[in-house]
């Protein structure tokens, strides 16, 4: 009898229990990935996500504007800028190591750059996949592919032989490390195939995006450095590509005296808030604390100097080596970007830096730079200047360089002169030499992230300077970071490291 | 007349239960009509009473009193007429009255913890004095979803009763347990008010999966925070389940061990009022030797630091940021009731004033527990309610200049002694020529960093005897925690980010809602030589987490701090300033356990649990956790008869499978898209999205398989007792955030179950009564444990992607290396310095390159961050009314990477910061390496606790007893470690074993008063 009740009770309990065995997961505060990217809106978002990679922010991600990433890696190893260790104790030594060509595979900046590029390629792959699967129009698919080619171009330029993949669902063993030559072929083919699909719209919805003209600009860069990458010069192709780019109708922005510009010349509008449409081909957008930032001026000025100018303390970081500064003539409007001597805030900058690492530079040693004169919103963590990835002046000089290299110096003269005259200089008295073009590129494009590529192409990258002797050939490529080798033992390190 | 009935004996009534009663029991069991029970109960009771009065009339009434060994009346002792079911329980004054069938019968008197006594009933006024049972092994042990007595325990369980807990100004129950249980290592890193120690049971068995034991307080399950909500003075006993055969009953939450806390209940029939109060003064025993102003300037000149950096003051930064702290712990407790109802209530206040200025913690806890019996004592309802308020004012946890981030007090070391605290105009001094200069005194004074934690938990336990051998139980608990932190960093704090943003403030709200319900049937039956104790249980748990975060910046002044975010400049809202979340997890379990005893000497425990959890991946929603354990009471065997050496001897062996799912968070197995700031696209700023994690439908719990053998013994006439345990445990399906190659993965990491680690250990606990006589008891107790940890394997593959995860970085120069303990240092060897005073290290393979890769041949293995041994020595002495106890504790075999010393030793920083005195002989300008120069031994011995107490029993009618005590904590520390304290983060998590600077560990002196009122 009793047993019957108990069994009945147990059965009843089991029924109750059986109905509460659901352990499915519910998501309340995020979107499931498949549903999200499967929608057309999601596909657009995937494309926007790739541009977010270019913008970056802190932590060594992004193309330019913040610190410890791609920009620092590609400018601090050249003759145009460096952050010395100060004898007051400020600044770690890895920036000086870049300038001294003593960088290590463990260096933070190298690691950051690599990780940023591969996470960008993942985003680009994702965007391509999502756009293709949602039947997006071909313009958008082409845009995503050109973006991906852009990141591979940067990898080819800095690291040479790198892992390559275009679909995210692959396993490591399907991931070959391809040679610089193979990567070159991919980038060129990908660009040639997709550039014609890109829209021709300039500005507006396409400000800061790859339109057809930015596509040609990228391809021209690849051709220009072809000799470095694969040992085969492509100067005629460079010229032809720049001529296609010129169909977009670009011109040099006026450079003369201006009452409204804080540095006194309209030239500096090229580095201000919204970059002028006449000359800018591709801009990186920045609004401090919202989308990326531009630290380049606050990082350079000393604390009290920036405090006096903007109300925020400067970082007393980047200086311009005196040899580079010496290239500028006094009447050059481009000299207005430099600060030397007494400044507001009771600071006096001196020309020479005597020591980069031990014991370090004196507090106010070194010429400072304000090319990116801060625009609002700004604070001590940076300003909102946009950054020119490609602008027409660069391509005028590239065309001139290609012409000179092809022995057509006569055709190059007017091009170099146009740049000089905009800066308030006299035209050249003779046809330009390669040296003239190289020097003009330095004067015009300093602090814009092109210097390392130029110095390698012109063969000056390894030359000795005041702080070091000539460096070795292998320094033309950066090492694959130790962390990447640790994670993927199949990778082969670049020679010399 | 066999069916003799008595008011307190309910046994016979059981055979006559009406049908309705059983149906009601069924309802009760499923928790549907719980509160309709009294209607039935009333009828039944009346029926029983009438029956008993009829029978009483022909009985002889015998009265008497039961006392304990000190002559204090014992309420609640049972008095039974031998050979019958006729029995009573003594009342509040120890008195009983029993009507016996036969005037010549024998009365059997029993009381838990005392030896049984038999007394002839044919006496006028019986006086029984019970003797304590020296076989203290029979104390009750809580084993999870039930209790047993110590002699029946088959697993490795450490039990600590109230009297053995550490004393002093305790703020967290774990501090009471330090040094008290073998294999249970409790570490306190610094004495920040409100901070809790860290506990590890039998070493580290998980990497990212979590090593915190499950905490169970009176049946309510929770994480370590639950401990913080228990007033230390209200703990009756702590049972720590260590091996898998004991913890498997907790299934996928049992692997790191289980701490079971039983709080004080009122004894039936006794009213109490108690007051205890303890206050301590807390001091900083030691500080680092930094350069004074003169020394600093001498060195500065030597290293060509410009004179512009010398601001001419002479400031002791550490001193101005610290003070003498104080800790108080007050409790009022009271309780009362009779046999069918009793309750206990208490209110506690725990107040801490930290040794760093502007840091304090105030905790208030009220609790009440009540038990009501009904239905002829067959139904027992127990309610528990605990509510607490925990308010913290913290110093800033993580702050610093670009190159070094630590807590506020460590930033004081960085300050140049020549910097003044205040500028000439009275404002806080800052140096505009130092990048991100911070004045730590300004930070301490100006920053508002407050936490308010409100928590409430309650439970109801309904236990109903269906049959004499079968009990049904329903248990439900609900725990709610609301946590608010408010933070305000004004411009005046001198912190760069505050200046940039014109001050910013944020409010962070987090809410946890944890519900648990279980239903069980327990069966106990003894026939002849067989004893069964079986349990079947269904359990449902759900935890919901919700919260939001708001931040504003740009404040005109500091008046409103974080209390009015709308006063900020709303045009400066940034991505991340507003966020909220919600997620939940559900765990459903079925479990069963059988304890079987044969001939009172062969013990067998079998348990099985099946867990289903929502956080597991789609392919592994359910896991099985079986365990088996055996015990053999050798002393009960015939061949041990006449053996004088052992009083008790028991051999135990167990094996079990347990799980760990702490490291899995809701939604971990899914690929999800979340907001990722703002980007610019299509001509405007838009919200950016990205994938927040990789999907892994194979994600599951970690599996720990553990085997344990142990022996419990008592010898030398119960004077020496102890246990020895040896175990080996292997965790498989180890959860890890595996580093994967950047292509094809977006973040370079994926959470997956690959790999295994092993712990092998030996534990010994001994207690020896050196002296025992009427006036003096001197006991020497101690315990020790050895643990050998080894990473067996970390490699595997996920979705076909091979993972090579050997040499995973796990802290400064420490790694997870196959075949080595967790956190093994593989490090470059310091050789000296070059002509530029840069550190040089040994190029071990002589290739001219110092390879800093993690598998570099230039590195050498140099020990692990994990201690290999722990011990504690615990002498106690009782002389008349004085008591004295000490806890000495030590651990070691580990290495510590002293990051702080490295940061405070490099002369390259001299222009902006101070350095250690020891940096002068070192003379290093810079280093590119983390070498073994900064690696030190972590061994230490600490005098953890010394307590002297005096108990008075004044002849005053309102006071039962008064105890006065004096406690010193952390009085002595012996170590070679050069930092502040070698007791650092030993959690086993990434980055453990390094010293980045800690809040000072205090040395304290406490005076305590404990009064029991009549």
Automatic annotation (TrEMBL), chain A:
Domain SusD-like N-terminal: 92-224
Subcellular location: Cell outer membrane
InterPro entries: SusD-like_N (IPR033985), SusD_RagB_dom (IPR012944), TPR-like_helical_dom_sf (IPR011990)
Residue ranges occupied by any RagB/SusD domain in the UniProt entry: 362-497
UniProt-listed SUPFAM superfamilies: TPR-like
Signal peptide: 1-18
PROSITE patterns found in the cross-reference section: PROKAR_LIPOPROTEIN
UniProt KW Membrane keyword: yes
Keywords: Cell outer membrane, Membrane, Signal
Claim: Signal is one of the keywords in the record: yes
Domain of life: Bacteria
GO cellular component: cell outer membrane
Principal location: membrane
UniProt similarity note: Belongs to the SusD family.
Protein name: RagB/SusD family nutrient uptake outer membrane protein
TrEMBL record, chain B:
InterPro entries: Beta-barrel_TonB (IPR000531), Beta-barrel_TonB_sf (IPR036942), CarboxyPept-like_regulatory (IPR008969), Plug_dom (IPR012910), Plug_dom_sf (IPR037066), TonB-dep_OMP_SusC/RagA (IPR023996), TonB-dep_OMP_SusC/RagA_CS (IPR023997), TonB-dep_rcpt-like (IPR039426)
Record-annotated TonB-dependent receptor plug domain positions: 150-258
Membrane-traversing stretches: 21-41
Keywords noted in UniProt: Cell outer membrane, Membrane, TonB box, Transmembrane, Transmembrane beta strand, Transmembrane helix, Transport
SUPFAM superfamilies, per the entry: Carboxypeptidase regulatory domain-like, Porins
GO cellular component: cell outer membrane
Membrane topology: Multi-pass membrane protein
Main location: membrane
Keyword Zinc belongs to the record: no
Subcellular location as annotated: Cell outer membrane
Keyword Ion transport (UniProt): no
One Pfam family named in its UniProt record: Plug
Domain TonB-dependent receptor-like beta-barrel: 412-879
Similarity annotation: Belongs to the TonB-dependent receptor family.
Protein's name according to its UniProt entry: SusC/RagA family TonB-linked outer membrane protein
Annotated source species: Salinimicrobium profundisediminis
């Amino acid at each position: 009898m009793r047993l019957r009740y108990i069994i009945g009770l147990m059965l009843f309990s089991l029924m109750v229990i059986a109905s509460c065995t659901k352990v499915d997961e519910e998501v309340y505060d995020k979107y499931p990935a498949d549903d999200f990217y499967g929608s057309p809106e999601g596909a657009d978002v995937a494309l926007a996500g790739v541009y977010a990679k270019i913008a970056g922010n802190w932590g060594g991600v992004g193309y330019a504007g913040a610190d410890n990433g791609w920009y620092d890696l590609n400018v601090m190893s050249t003759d145009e800028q460096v952050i010395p260790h100060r004898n007051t104790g400020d600044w770690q030594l890895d920036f000086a190591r870049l300038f001294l060509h003593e960088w290590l595979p463990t260096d933070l900046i190298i690691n950051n750059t690599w990780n940023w590029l591969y996470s960008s390629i993942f985003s680009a792959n994702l965007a391509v996949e999502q756009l293709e699967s949602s039947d997006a129009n071909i313009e958008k698919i082409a845009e995503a592919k050109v973006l991906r080619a852009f990141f591979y171009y940067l990898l080819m330029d800095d690291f040479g032989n790198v892992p390559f993949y275009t679909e995210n669902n692959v396993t490591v063993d399907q991931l070959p490390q391809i040679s610089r030559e193979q990567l070159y072929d991919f980038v060129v083919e990908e660009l040639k195939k997709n550039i014609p699909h890109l829209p021709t719209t300039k500005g507006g919805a396409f400000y800061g995006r790859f339109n057809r003209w930015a596509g040609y600009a990228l391809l021209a860069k690849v051709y220009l450095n072809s000799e470095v990458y694969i040992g085969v010069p492509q100067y005629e192709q460079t010229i032809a590509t720049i001529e296609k780019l010129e169909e977009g109708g670009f011109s040099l922005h006026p450079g003369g005296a201006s009452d409204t510009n804080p540095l006194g010349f309209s030239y500096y509008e090229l580095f201000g808030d919204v970059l002028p449409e006449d000359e800018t081909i591709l801009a990186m957008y920045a609004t401090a604390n919202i989308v990326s930032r531009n630290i380049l001026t606050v990082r350079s000025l000393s604390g009290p100097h920036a405090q006096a100018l903007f109300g925020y303390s400067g970082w007393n970081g980047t200086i311009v080596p005196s040899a580079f500064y010496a290239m500028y003539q006094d009447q050059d409007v481009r000299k207005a970007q430099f600060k030397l001597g007494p400044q507001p805030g009771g600071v006096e900058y001196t020309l020479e830096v005597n020591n980069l690492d031990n014991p370090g530079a004196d507090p106010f040693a070194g010429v400072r730079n304000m090319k990116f004169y801060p625009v609002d919103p700004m604070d001590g963590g940076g300003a909102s200047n946009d950054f020119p990835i490609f602008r027409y002046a660069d391509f005028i000089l590239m065309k001139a360089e290609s012409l000179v290299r092809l022995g057509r110096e006569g055709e190059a003269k007017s091009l170099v002169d146009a740049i000089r005259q905009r800066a308030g200089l006299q035209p050249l008295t003779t046809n330009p030499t390669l040296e003239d073009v190289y020097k003009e590129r330095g004067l015009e494009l300093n602090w814009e992230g092109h210097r390392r590529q130029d110095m390698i192409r012109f063969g000056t990258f390894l030359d000795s300077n005041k702080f070091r002797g000539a460096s070795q050939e292998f320094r033309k490529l950066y090492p694959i970071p130790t962390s990447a080798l640790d994670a993927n033992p199949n990778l082969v390190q670049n020679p010399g490291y | 007349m066999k069916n003799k009935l008595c008011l307190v004996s309910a046994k016979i009534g059981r055979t006559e239960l009406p049908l309705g009663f059983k149906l009601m029991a069924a309802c009760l069991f499923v928790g549907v009509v719980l509160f309709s029970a009294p209607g039935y109960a009333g009828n039944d009771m009346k029926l029983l009473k009438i029956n008993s009065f009829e029978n009483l009339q022909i009985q002889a009434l015998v009265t008497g009193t039961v006392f304990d060994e000190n002559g204090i009346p014992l309420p609640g002792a049972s008095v039974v007429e031998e050979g019958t079911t006729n029995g009573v329980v003594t009342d509040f004054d120890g008195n009983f009255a029993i009507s016996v069938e036969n005037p010549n019968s024998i009365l059997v008197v029993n009381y838990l913890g005392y030896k049984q006594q038999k007394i002839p009933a044919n006496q006028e006024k019986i006086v029984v004095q019970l003797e304590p049972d020296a076989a203290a092994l029979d104390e009750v042990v809580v084993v999870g979803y039930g209790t047993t007595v110590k002699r029946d325990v088959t697993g490795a369980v450490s039990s600590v009763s109230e009297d053995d807990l550490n004393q002093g100004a305790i703020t967290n129950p774990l501090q009471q347990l330090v040094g008290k249980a073998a294999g249970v290592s409790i570490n306190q890193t610094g004495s920040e008010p409100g901070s809790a120690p860290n506990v590890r049971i039998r070493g580290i068995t998980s990497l990212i999966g979590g090593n915190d034991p499950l905490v169970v307080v009176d049946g309510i399950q929770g994480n370590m925070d639950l401990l913080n909500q228990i007033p230390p003075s209200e703990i009756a006993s702590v049972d720590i389940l260590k091996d898998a055969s004991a913890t498997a009953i907790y299934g996928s939450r049992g692997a790191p061990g289980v701490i079971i806390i039983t709080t004080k209940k009122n004894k039936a029939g006794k009213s109490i009022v108690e007051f205890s109060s303890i206050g301590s003064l807390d001091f900083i025993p030691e500080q680092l030797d930094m350069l004074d102003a003169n020394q600093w300037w001498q060195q500065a000149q030597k290293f060509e630091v410009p004179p512009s950096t010398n601001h001419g003051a002479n400031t002791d930064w550490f001193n101005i940021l610290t003070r003498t702290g104080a800790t108080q712990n007050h409790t009022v407790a009271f309780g009362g009731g009779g046999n069918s109802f009793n309750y206990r209530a208490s209110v506690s206040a725990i107040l801490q004033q930290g040794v760093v200025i502007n840091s304090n913690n105030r905790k208030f806890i009220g609790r009440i527990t009540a038990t009501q019996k009904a239905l002829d004592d067959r139904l027992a309802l127990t309610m528990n309610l605990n509510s607490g308020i925990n308010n913290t004012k913290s110093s800033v946890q993580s702050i610093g200049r670009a190159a070094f981030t630590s807590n506020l007090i460590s930033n004081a070391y960085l300050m140049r002694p020549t910097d003044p605290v205040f500028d000439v105009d009275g404002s806080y001094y800052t140096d505009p020529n130092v990048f991100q200069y911070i004045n730590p005194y300004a930070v301490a004074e100006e920053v508002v960093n407050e936490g308010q934690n409100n928590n409430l938990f309650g439970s109801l336990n309904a236990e109903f005897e269906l049959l004499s051998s079968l009990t049904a139980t329903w248990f439900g608990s609900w725990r709610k925690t609301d946590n608010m932190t408010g933070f305000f960093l004004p411009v005046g704090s001198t912190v760069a980010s505050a200046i940039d943003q014109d001050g910013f403030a944020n409010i962070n709200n987090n809410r946890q809602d944890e519900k648990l319900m279980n239903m069980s049937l327990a069966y106990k039956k003894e026939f002849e030589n067989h004893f069964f104790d079986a349990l079947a249980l269904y359990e449902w748990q759900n935890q919901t987490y919700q919260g939001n975060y708001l931040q504003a910046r740009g404040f005109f002044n500091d008046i409103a701090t974080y209390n009015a975010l709308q006063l900020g400049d709303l045009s400066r809202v940034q991505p991340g300033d507003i966020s909220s979340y919600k997620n939940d997890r559900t765990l459903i379990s079925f479990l069963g356990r059988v304890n079987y005893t044969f001939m009172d000497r062969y013990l067998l425990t079998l348990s099985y649990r099946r867990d289903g959890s929502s956080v597991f991946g789609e392919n592994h929603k359910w896991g099985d956790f079986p365990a088996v354990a055996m015990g053999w009471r050798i002393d009960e065997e015939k061949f041990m008869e006449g053996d004088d050496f052992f009083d008790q001897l028991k051999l135990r062996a167990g094996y079990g499978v347990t799980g760990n799912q702490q490291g899995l968070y809701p939604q971990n197995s899914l690929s999800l898209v979340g907001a990722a700031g703002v980007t610019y696209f299509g001509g405007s700023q838009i919200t950016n999205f990205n994938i927040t994690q990789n999907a892994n439908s194979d994600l599951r719990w970690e599996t720990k398989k553990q085997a344990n053998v142990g022996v419990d013994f008592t010898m030398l006439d119960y004077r020496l007792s102890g246990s020895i345990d040896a175990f080996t445990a292997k965790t498989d399906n180890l959860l890890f955030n595996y580093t994967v190659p950047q292509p094809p993965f977006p973040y370079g990491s994926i959470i997956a179950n690959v790999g295994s680690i092993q712990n092998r250990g030996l534990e010994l606990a001994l207690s020896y009564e050196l002296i025992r006589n009427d006036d003096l008891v001197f006991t020497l107790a101690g315990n020790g444990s050895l643990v050998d940890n080894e990473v067996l394997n970390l490699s595997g593959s996920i979705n076909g992607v091979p993972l090579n995860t050997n040499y995973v970085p796990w802290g400064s120069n420490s790694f997870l290396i196959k075949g080595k303990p967790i956190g093994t240092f593989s490090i470059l060897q310091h050789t000296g310095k070059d002509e530029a005073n840069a550190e040089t290290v040994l190029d071990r393979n002589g290739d001219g390159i110092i390879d800093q890769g993690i598998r570099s041949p230039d590195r050498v293995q140099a020990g692990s961050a994990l201690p290999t041994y722990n011990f504690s020595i615990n002498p106690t002495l009782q002389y008349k009314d004085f008591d004295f106890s000490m806890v000495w504790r030590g651990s070691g075999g580990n290495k510590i990477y002293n990051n702080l010393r490295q940061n405070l030793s490099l002369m390259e920083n001299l222009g902006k910061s101070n350095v250690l005195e020891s940096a002068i002989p070192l003379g290093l300008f810079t280093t590119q390496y983390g070498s073994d120069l900064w690696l030190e031994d972590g061994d230490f011995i600490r005098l953890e606790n010394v307590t002297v107490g005096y108990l008075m029993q004044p002849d005053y009618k309102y006071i039962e007893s008064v105890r006065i005590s004096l406690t010193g904590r952390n009085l002595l520390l012996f170590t070679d470690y050069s930092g502040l304290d070698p007791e650092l983060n030993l959690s086993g998590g990434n980055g453990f074993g390094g010293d980045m600077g800690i809040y000072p560990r205090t040395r304290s002196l406490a005076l305590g008063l404990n009064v029991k009122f009549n």
